[in-house]
Amino acid sequence: MQISETTVEVRYAETDQMGVVYHANYLVWMEIGRTALIRDIGFSYAGLEEKGYLSPVIDLNIQYKQPMRYGDTAVIRTWIERHGKLRTTYGYEIAHPDGTVAATARSEHTLVHKDTFRPVALRKIDPLWEAKYIEIAKETD
Known about the structure:
The protein has helices at about 25-40, 45-50, 120-125, 125-135, and strands at about 5-10, 55, 55-65, 75-85, 85-95, 100-110, 110-115, 140. The protein is an alpha+beta fold. Strands 1, 3, 4, 5, 6 and 8 form a 6-stranded mixed β-sheet that branches. The radius of gyration is 16 Å and the shape is elongated.
């Protein structure tokens, strides 16, 4: 299993009146993590879109454990939890630099043709990308 790691400095605009990061910002950080993972293994989500494909989220689950606050650094760890014929599940851990976990999450995605939104298998779009996902996933179909 390959884990990609990237960091984000928490900005004031990402916090709520309680001074903690507003929950929806974790979704943005997860996208940053996915993009970093894809880049780290040698591919490009932007390149996938240029070919006419999208990867919409079809399921999402987040567990909030400890707050992140303005000025903190969020350490985002991302990996492939499961890869199947039409679905990929990404796993995430968002933590403080000392290792204290702020949130864990999973997001499930499928690939669709941009014009029709019909599902398409990654192996038909990019067999090398498919092979890499199979290699690094915790589980496969």
